[in-house]
Amino acid sequence: MEGVRPGGGPPAGAPGSGSGSGSASFPSLFPPGLHGIYGECRRLYPDQPNPLQVTAILKYWLGGPDPLDYVSMYRNLGNPALNVPEHWHYVSFGLSDLYGDNRVHEFTGTDGPSGFGFELTFRLKRETGESAPPTWPAELMQGLARYVFQSENTFCSGDHVSWHSPLDNSESRIQHMLLTEDPQMQPVQTPFGVVTFLQIVGVCTEELHAAQQWNGQGILELLRTVPVAGGPWLITDMRRGETIFEIDPHLQQERVDKGIETDGSNLSGVSAKCAWDDLSRPPEDDEDSRSICIGTQPRRLSGKDTEQIRETLRRGLEINSKPVLPPINAQRQNGLNLDRAPSRKDSLESESSAAIIPHELIRTRQLESVHLKFNQESGALIPLCLRGRLLHGRHFTYKSITGDTAITFVSTGVEGAFATEEHPYAAHGPWLQILLTEEFVERMLEDLEDLNSPEEFKLPKEYSWPEKKLKVSILPDAVFDNPLH
């Protein structure tokens, strides 16, 4: 439960409250980390010392469900000279270390990041006659914070979040998010480390897809050039009815398509509903217990396997190339994906995967024939994998959200792969690698063209390349939700 109250400022008598000589008497009432962030807010809003706040009634460190202690809400007058409209500015408190006493975050010193190293902000266009800020953005921020705390994966500028639902639960087309640096708030040095400010930017589905096909930073730059779609401060307007590509059709062809062709995609992997079968031997042949058979308990990735996947994902990528994170919670399991940022705990790591099978006992095995299975949302990303990644000499990984299965597509230019041109299908425990030549990728793109038209898609759908001994099936979600699929 959360409550809305005035009181964004420090308690009376606390440092920075302006109460004179008595201020030093109550330093414990106003935690130093909170004070540092509040100071940056006061710099921007000196006339709003006590903004409205959404506060967690039962703090996270006392067993409450909401990681953010507070979300402050300010009224920003914008900048008419820059065509920036008046809006509400939301700032979170809690992803960074507010207290420094290990109640929430481990204190690691002053030189590194404070807590997770960032706080979230959000800028929402103020509607005419609106006298108070809506509170739904605070719950949105709590949802993202819950994900960060549960997964220990952090965010960075350029990341995207596919939410698959209007951010305010209305009928809005704004159903996804990009993340970028807040245009006004500067990094803060606190006694517990540095805090930066990442702004949530609401986007339409078409804009999210463009960010996936190309990269988040490129789409953010386009949004900045279109005032009604964000403008220079990237303000979210939930009533925006057109995408940037409908507003300016030239942006798709002249900027996005050219960017994809030139740069490829920065998206190196996704959390997905996926599975694979080894068709090289009959299912009843269990002589090699390393094979993955549908309906049997899959082997788990050892710690060394997981590290190898991580290293493979890192090779040959741009700075912002990150695999996508798993869902925040069960309610979002069919939709939410996040572009991966540097993390304290890698998203590919399973807490139960630590050396269940000794690494040296699981040899890499070449397969003659494989069958890949994806749900529709994951399958729709195969053209992106082929065109935006493999044709640019890169790789792309599907990591199952329901187990330790992983499928990595690699091109001939990727180093460190255990799949080769001579043996293009290779498995190491539940991790399958598939090496595709450029010629075969071009053919697959032609055969898979209908994946780009999901509205005309009927499940199940099967694609087969017999001479390559490869089969791909696109199946309903229910197949993957059933443990005996």
Task: Describe the secondary-structure layout.
Layout lengths: L1 E5 L25 H13 L7 E5 L13 E7 L10 E7 L19 E13 L10 H16 L8 E3 L13 E6 L6 E3 L2 E11 L1 H9 L2 H10 L18 H4 L2 H14 L5 E4 L1 E5 L24 H12 L9 E2 L11 E3 L25 E2 L3 E6 H4 L2 H8 L5 E6 L5 E5 L14 E4 L2 E5 L2 H10 L13 E5 L4 E6 L1 H5 L4
Parallel strand pairs: 5-9, 10-16, 15-21, 17-19
Antiparallel strand pairs: 1-2, 2-3, 3-4, 4-5, 6-7, 6-13, 7-9, 8-9, 11-15, 12-13, 14-18, 16-17, 18-19, 20-21
Helix pairs in contact: 3-4
Helix tally equals 11
* Approximate strand percentage: 15-25%
The helix-and-strand class reads: alpha+beta
**Secondary structure: number of strands:** 21
Rounded to the nearest angstrom, the distance between the terminal CA atoms is 38 Å
Low-confidence stretches: 10-27, 285-299, 313-361
Helix content, binned percent:
10-25%
Q: What is the approximate shape?
A: globular
How big is the Rg?
Answer: 24 Å
* Mean pLDDT over the full residue set: 81
Main sheet properties: 11 strands, mixed
Number of domains: 2
